Amino acid sequence: MSKGRIVAFVPDLFFSVRVADVIRRLGYQPQIVERPDHFTAALDLQTGSLPLALVIVDMNAPPQHWSQTVRDLKDDPERNYIPVLAFGSHLDVERQRLAREAGCDRIVANSKFHEALSTLINTMARDQE
Question: What is the pTM of this model?
Fold first, then answer.
């Protein structure tokens, strides 16, 4: 039985496979999306009875592909409790600022995301069990 659904906007196809594997191994249902329109649709989708436990955003994608979608989620009083984890270059302070303004709950550097993905998910995801 799944603990819930994790939507990850990760445009990098090769890296998205690793993210999905980690999510699945931790007992969640991964929903990996690579296109901005699919990201928006995934957050609106009610997949069976699996509630949304966490949203992951790759800030390496252009901000217009994710920032408004995150802002819309956080502005929705019925869903603003859903945690959002963003990752990207530690040097890109502009995208970090945009992620904070959009409402991301935690922003980490690519290196931290890669080395501690399991811990980040376990810490942030809202277990539904």
Answer: 0.93
Domain tally for the chain? 1
- The 3-class SS string of the chain reads CCCCEEEEECCCHHHHHHHHHHHHHCCCEEEEECCHHHHHHHHHCCCCCCCEEEEEEECCCCHHHCHHHHHHHHHCCCCCCCCEEEEECCCCHHHHHHHHHHCCCEEEEHHHHHHHHHHHHHHHCCCCC
Range of the domain at 117: 5-124
pLDDT tens-digit series, residues 52-100? 999 999 999 989 999 999 999 999 998 899 999 999 999 889 999 999 9
